[in-house]
Amino acid sequence: MWIPTEHEKYGVVIASFRGTVPYGLSLEIGDTVQILEKCDGWYRGFALKNPNIKGIFPSSYVHLKNACVKNKGQFEMVIPTEDSVITEMTSTLRDWGTLWKQLYVRNEGDLFHRLWHIMNEVLDLRRQVLVGHLTHDRMKDVKRHITARLDWGNEQLGLDLVPRKEYAMVDPEDISITELYRLMEHRHRKKDAPAQASSHHLFVQLKSLMCSNLGEELEVVFSLFDSRENRPISERFFLRLNRNGLPKAPDKPERHCSLFVDLGSSELRRDIYITVHIIRIGRMGAGEKKNACSVQYRRPFGCAVLSIADLLTGETKDDLILKVYMCNTESEWHQIHENIIKKLNARYNLTGSNAGLAVSLQLLHGDLEQIRREYPSVFSHGVSITRKLGFSNIIMPGEMRNDLYITVERGEFEKGGKSVARNVEVTMFVVESGGQTLKDFISFGSGEPPASEYHSFVLYHNNSPRWAELLKLPIPVDKFRGAHVRFEFRHCSTKEKGEKKLFGFSFIPLMQEDGRTLPDGTHELIVHKCEENTNLQDPTRYLKLPFSKGLLLGTSNPAAKTTKESFWITSFLCSTKLTQNGDMLDLLKWRTHPDKIPGCLSKLKEIDGSEIVKFLQDTLDTLFGILDENSQKYGSKVFDSLVHIINLLQDSKFHHFKPVMDTYIESHFAGALAYRDLIKVLKWYVDRITEAERQEHIQEVLKAQEYIFKYIVQSRRLFSLATGGQHEEEFRCCIRELLLSVRFFLSQESKGAGPLSQSQAVFLSSFPAVYSELLKLFDIREVANLVQDTLGSLPTLLHVDETLQAVKLQCIGQTVESQLYTNPDSRCILLPVVLHHLHMHLRQQKDLVACARILSNVFCLSKRNSSEKSVLEEIDVIVASLLDILLRTILEITSRPQASGSATRLHFQDVTGEFVACLLSLLRQMTDRHYQQLLDSFSTKEELRDFLLQIFTVFRILIRPEMFPKDWTVMRLVANNVIITTVLYLSDALRKNFLNENFDYKIWDSYFYLAVIFINQLCLQLEMFTPSKKKKVLEKYGDMRVTMGCEIFSMWQNLGEHKLHFIPALIGPFLEVTLIPQPDLRNVMIPIFHDMMDWEQRRSGNFKQVEAKLIDKLDSLMSEGKGDETYRELFNSILLKKIERETWRESGVSLIATVTRLMERLLDYRDCMKVGEVDGKKIGCTVSLLNFYKTELNKEEMYIRYIHKLYDLHLKAQNFTEAAYTLLLYDELLEWSDRPLREFLSYPMQTEWQRKEHLHLAIIQNFDRGKCWESGIVLCRKIAEQYESYYDYRNLSKMRMMEASLYDKIMDQQRLEPEFFRVGFYGKKFPFFLRNKEFVCRGHDYERLEAFQQRMLTEFPHAIAMQHANQPDETIFQAEAQYLQIYAVTPIPESQEVLQREGVPDNIKSFYKVNHIWKFRYDRPFHKGPKDKENEFKSLWVERTSLFLVQSLPGISRWFEVDKREVVEMTPLENAIEVLENKNQQLKTLISQCQTRQMQNINPLTMCLNGVIDAAVNGGVSRYQEAFFVKEYVLSHPEDGEKIARLRELMLEQAQILEFGLAVHEKFVPQDMRPLHKKLVDQFFMMKSSLGIQEFSAYIQASPVHFPNGSPRVCRNSAPASMSPDGSRVIPRRSPLSYPAVNRYSSSSLSSQASAEVSNITGQSESSDEVFNMQPSPSTSSLSSTHSASPNVTSSAPSSARASPLLSDKHKHSRENACLSPRERPCSAIYPTPVEPSQRLLFNHIGDGALPRSDPNLSAPEKAVNPTPSSWSLDSGKEARSLAESGRLLSPPVPPRPALTASPARHTAPVSPSPAGRSPLKGPGQSFTPSPVEYHSSGLLSNSPVLSGSCSSGISSLSRCSASEISGFENPVNEPSAPGSGSGYGAPEEPVRKDSKTPPPYSVYERTVRRPVPLPHSLSIPVTSEPPALPPKPLAARPSALENGTRRTEPGPRPRPLPRKVSQL
Q: DSSP character for 1243?
């Protein structure tokens, strides 16, 4: 039985549980669980990470932890009772774990590893805390470390700042908001700006001395030197080096590293230097022989200097090499460091051994304890401490020092009978009174232990040596008295013995007879001469002698006159026990000399402060002893002395001695009667304030009042204890009188900063410290009344001194912070006076920082006592007094412009934040009663209105993101909670007072605006939070967005008819709210749109405004990333449901559908734009959205914006042609007018003419870059017309030159023909604009089917490629997946005129083959009926599918949707006819190319002839005879008679072509291929016999054209009309049958074509292209290896038995796989070699009657025909398409010159002499130059691998001549010229201008006067009297059907939206 648990409520999973049992709960190790019930070793509960799933789990898998339960029962909440730091660590580490993995994914390796180390460290510290064995101090330290690391990690990861109090997280509900703000600010400041350390330390470590020839031990002395004052500021760090220059004691690191401690900030400056003096220990001369002298001396070696400024960067200076210098003369050794600092180069140079000192230096900041914690490595191995000279900047009371510093300065000695100067060495001893030498009291420096004696270094032959060596004598106080220092002087001989001979001594006592120690300063000592063997062990013998010359001055002592030798030392005492001051000693011994008391008290102010604080207690005892002795006589002087000592402790240097005085007052002070005198003297001074002229001393008294009152109070307490409380009333009366005097002097007003106001300021600054003293003797209310009266007496006028105002506020602030204000009884007395002064300052906007701080403290205290009744009354007072002024202050501060300085900005933010926290605190503490009283307090509605507007404005300011730092989420949530609570209170007042007849639009608008920006705050978007953070927020505050949304809905419903005021203004804001992904909020807010539609419908009969606003805002909001698919569905469903019963339901549904479709496209657009690279999906989505805005929404501005977005995408993807067409859309909206246009997007303000001109030039540039020059020419003409109409000939000339350059590029530069692919997107996972649609895509250059398919799969990585070409079924359409169906299609050009015209170069034709294409097709072969195994062509049908696009390619996109499709089935006979037509066309092309020498070699023709002839011999076309010429077929298909005849003609024609081809082949075949040619000729006769052809006479008719060299003449019969599609059955299809496109040419033989079905299905080809692949060609492109020619099933022909056409069963399954093969490309081997420009042939149109066809007088080279082959078209235009569409950009390569009539623009536009703003020379960017033609034909094609002779490459853009490229179109032989097309620009009328640099205008560019080689009639061009007509001018109307009715009528021209005028865009 399951029993609810009582104590087992919370636990941690210690082993993972899979939950495989029924109702089992899956748990992972580390999960925390809440337990609800238990039963027999099992628990039932849930994991806290997912509380919605409950289940059971074993109790043994859970470790129970203590927890407390809140709200017991169904909704109980369990809170673990562990340490809050542990709880925070646990939750933080969980959050970090998730983010840590994301760092790895984002490749942020550095932070990843650092965070990993921190996490491990925190886990280790957590383990220490959990064990619970730490001491209290250690626990505190560990928690400090933990919180520091947690804060660091949160900051690095961008998480929230955590408010803490003593390392524990703070609940914002438990403290006031002002206190919360302070905690946050404190942590923020700590994070941003670390506090400047007041003390600094220099770490020095000596590594070695690098020197070439040492050989002697060294002493190295470091010290810090102040070059400004020329004195050392630190003790010395002394260490010894061995002979190798390394530390002598490497095992003792404290000997070779030191820490120079207690450097003040003032000492971190550039003129502080580290000096290093090096002394060698050895012989007198560095170069002396080793046996010259055995005695060693200390001798100067070198010096190094480094400025401490080099260390201020904070970087560690490891292995720093200091150069070591030596002075030029030893006598300057004492100042060598000064010379180096001053750079007096003449006085020093580098040491001879070129020495360098290797040191490591580091500057550390903070107190010494902090350094020990932060740099444990410095102290772990030991380090010596080097102090500053003297006391540090701050003297601590417990510091014990007794150090005497002696500097051995210099000496003056006589020669002593020597011929040269002495080598003097000084030896120093410290000797006690008994004559014993004190051991180990001479310290050379911090690195070495003290010694008993000191030996100076020796200067060679110098009687005036200067040493300047500093020594420290740490002598104990008890040994100081009677001790003296003795200096012995010896001459050091340099002879062999090296003796040191004593010749004199000096001494000096350490303490004088009167008890004073040796005074600081320089002392000149007498050098007493002595013999070498004099015994100085008995000091009594010399202590009676004079020791200092200063003492002998003015005396008649003969010793002073006899001695000429002197010795100078400098002494400096640093002692906390001894004094050198006689006045101090006299004061302390006042009882022995009572007569000196007045003098001693007067001199006290002159004594150094350090001397006074050393004897502070003794001095105070002395003063109060004197006061007790004679208060009448000395009372005033003692008072002044006491004031001096008290104020001395205010100095920062002695600030730490205040506790010493406090201790004295509490424990040692005994002046029970002193209070009377102190009060009397103090009152006397206060009464004199207003009269005294000089108030400096009075101000000193007032400054000391805190301690004076302490002495008064303590004295009174002692008196009361002694007397039992006598004279109590008298004492109270004295205090009242004293404060009355104070009030009087405070109430005095003085304008400006006079002495009186300064005295008032001094009193106020120290007055609050008196409160605590008064509370010791008076009742708290009494004290409060005294203070209130005192503060109330302050002048309130604000014209007084500003300094006094600041001090006054400071006094009030200290009052609020004092113990007196904390008590509720006194607070109610003091609060009114505090608020009064605050109100006065806030009203004048002065001292805002101080006011904010005072207010913060007021609210902190109110919160702590919030349960008390008095607090409610206090809030009443504060609301009445400060709420209004507080709101105005915040508005005033935030409306000021912020200064640029960072300090000012920080100050501004601090003030604002403090006031905001105060306002929030006040509002949070207000109850219903307070709000009601507040609202009732407004007497008029105007006042209430102003208040509401004011508070709504302030709330909007508080919501601003910049109000608090980014990571202050805690503070933001608290603020939002207060705001929403207040708004709920105030909204009721809004409803009651401002509705119906009192409606006020402004206040309601302010309310709604506040509510909207409240909901949209970033800090309230819980979806962005981590799960744990989201859970915490929801538990504490709930989802405040939903609450505010409900309030908006409620208020909206109350508006009634006033809703119309907010339509459409609030549509955008409300829409933004509904886009937030919160279901409840959306359900609440979306119905408001229905309400808006309803009210708008009532007002205007429609809701166009609502629709327009919705659409405008949707685009901007969704592009910002708002909204999702769920929102689209919810919006649709909610509104449709709402409008079901409305009368305007139909129009409502239309609006909702429109908006929903817009959302679909916007969501697709946003998703596509997330991808980094530009792909087809991005472009397609933009096109879809652009079209939607134009066609469905008619939103012109949005339409233009997306035009430019699409344009940018195209440019980025280098789709220049598409970019040009895109920009053309905008261009079409503009006209050539002077209408001004506003600035828009990147366009400046300009006229419409200028913008259109700018667009034209940009479009032309992009057409040029995209090699779509024909389209660029059209625009060149248009803009040229404009220039011409305005006589802007300069730009007209440039434009014509540009147009000419485009013509040159057409003829000279190569263009690649793109492939086209049909793509089907099936499945519901595709975006809406692609879903279940099919498109035709224009491939990139060189892109084949495999590459295209791979690209599509890359763009859609989740898509599945369909492996068949059949139409998908419904399951695929509805599948929750993505399916791609891709295969190649063949473009069907619309215009056949250019393609069918003879003599038009391929460069021109190639453009029309693949541009402006609306129609594409692909074929699928199939067998209908029983299949004949002997001849499968009897039943081989072809299903031909034609696809019609919505727009032609190329266009604004690389792909367009298929608009409709047509399916036609071709019979086997029709298929055979098409195959033969294509093969004949291919043969003609190759023969023509061979004749005109366009082929590099003859191999392609050879292979083609071999393929056709060999196949025909072995079966070939005979298969067609067997299939279609038999009697059975003719009888069963009587309707096919004409087609059979056509097939027969084609077979005969093929034989004629082959015969002529063999003749040409014979002429050009190389010698090594002659045997193959002979074989072909033999096989050709066999082929003719197999076809039953003996001769051609029966079919040959007379013709004027003859073969050369007696070749047989062949007449081309007038070809019958091509097969009409009407003869085939049209099969309607739902969707295209997927099969690869028919190839536009065929290069295989007839036999191989006959077996093409097999090759098509199996993916294998026997085409001649593949035969060409086997030809070893050195110039074959590498791309050819990847290109497999796609077989063409329509060019199949019967095969021989050797190439069987039978389809084996094993190949049947691969029939559909072949659909994905790319179509073949033309052969690159057949391209003509361009001739040199100088040799270009100029020729007329072929067929020009002016030139004869043959001339026997012409040589063979002169008989070359035009280099462009003839083009046969065997399909007479059955796929033609009407071109009569408005505005379509079509341009032939050489359009005729239009008649010289005015253009429409010239008719309509007035021509002004100087059209301002219109001339291209005056508009922006009109100047341009035509693109130069940079094409060199010589040798280019022959060397290019792309253009080489390998036809297998299949990728060259110059493949022009294949029959299938022409798509099988042909005109009848005798077809007349198109009416009106003759232009008269023929050769007879246009002479060749040889000297001209440019060709004649609008003539065919290449002409020739040479005559072509005669051709057989079937290959010739019919002779006409006039040249064929040129194509008409672009955009001109063209006939919809060709002559003879051979073209099938297509649907009419596609309607194009007429260009609209753009309003101002």
A: B
Question: Hey, what amino acid is at 964?
Answer: F
Sheet with 528-529: strands ordered across: 453-455, 424-431, 484-492, 500-509, 528-529
The Cα 1663–Cα 1883 span in angstroms is 43
Q: What string of H, E and C letters represents the secondary structure of 636-689?
A: HHHHHHHHHHHHHCCCCCCHHHHHHHHHHHHHHCCCCCHHHHHHHHHHHHHHCC
CA–CA distance, 1792 with 1923 (Å, rounded to integer)? 13
* Cβ pair 1825, 1297 in contact under 8 A: yes
1771/707: higher pLDDT? 707
For residue 1391, give the H/E element and its range: none
At a CB cut-off of 8 Å and minimum separation 6, what does 1280 contact? 1292, 1295, 1296, 1299
- The Cα-based distances of 70 to 3, 9, 78, 173, 1865 in angstroms read 19, 11, 6, 16, 90
CA–CA separation, 223 vs 389, rounded Å? Answer: 10
The DSSP string of 313-367 is: T---EEEEEEE-EEESSGGGGGGHHHHHHHT-GGGEEE-TT--EEEEEEEEEES-
Backbone φ/ψ region at 1881: left (φ over 0), alpha (ψ -120 to 50), beta: beta
- Which one, of 1270, 1277, 1274, 1269, lies nearest residue 1295 by Cα? 1277
Cis peptide before 1064 (omega within 30 of 0): yes
1467-1493 burial, b at 16+ Cβ within 10 Å, e below that, comes to: bbbbbbbbbbbbbbbbbbbbbbbbbbe
- Residue in 718, 829, 823, 720 with CA at minimum distance from that of residue 775: 823
Strand partners, 1437: 1422
365-383 confidence digits (pLDDT tens): 887 888 887 777 777 778 8
Distance CA 1002, CA 988 (A): 17
Give me the pLDDT at residue 1073, please. Answer: 94
Is the pLDDT at 899 greater than 80? The verdict is no
Mean pLDDT of 1728-1749: 37
Q: Which residue has the tokens 């657009």?
A: 1165
Query: CA dist 1643 to 449, 1502, 1661, Å?
Result: 106, 12, 11
Looking at the predicted structure, is the pLDDT value of residue 509 above 80? yes
Confidence band, pLDDT 50/70/90 cuts, at residue 1451? very high
Residue whose entry in the numeric block shows the structure tokens 């240097």? 653
DSSP state of 511: B
- 1658 touches 1678 (CB < 8 A): no
Residue 1124 has pLDDT above 60, yes or no: yes
Which of 699, 590, 580 lies closest to 638, judged by CA? 590
Query: How much is the pLDDT for 43?
Result: 94
Identify the helix (H) or strand (E) that includes residue 305: strand 297-307
**Predicted confidence (pLDDT) at residue 1936 exceeds the cutoff of 70:** no
pLDDT in tens, 625-638: 777 776 667 777 88
Structure tokens at 549: 């010359």
Quick one: what percent of the chain has pLDDT higher than 70?
75
Pairwise pLDDT comparison (1904 vs 1239), residue with the higher score? 1239
- 3-state DSSP of 17-60: ECCCCCCECCECCCCEEEEEEEECCEEEEEECCCCCCEEEEEHH
Confidence band of 1512 (pLDDT split at 50, 70, 90): low
Report the chain's mean pLDDT, rounded to a whole number. Answer: 76
Handedness of CA 947, 949, 951, 953 (dihedral sign): negative
Helices (H), 994-1086: 1001-1015, 1027-1037, 1040-1055, 1067-1074, 1079-1085
Closest by CA position to 265, among listed 652, 616, 820 = 652
> Can you tell me the mean pLDDT for 1210-1224?
94
Residues whose CB falls within 8 Å of the CB of residue 658, separated by 6 or more in sequence, listed in order: 649
Orientation angle between helical segments 941-958 and 969-993, nearest 10 degrees: 160
Contacts of 1613 (CB under 8 A, 6+ apart): 1545, 1595, 1597
- 547 in Cβ contact with 508 (< 8 Å): yes
Cα torsion angle, 283, 284, 290, 294, sign: negative
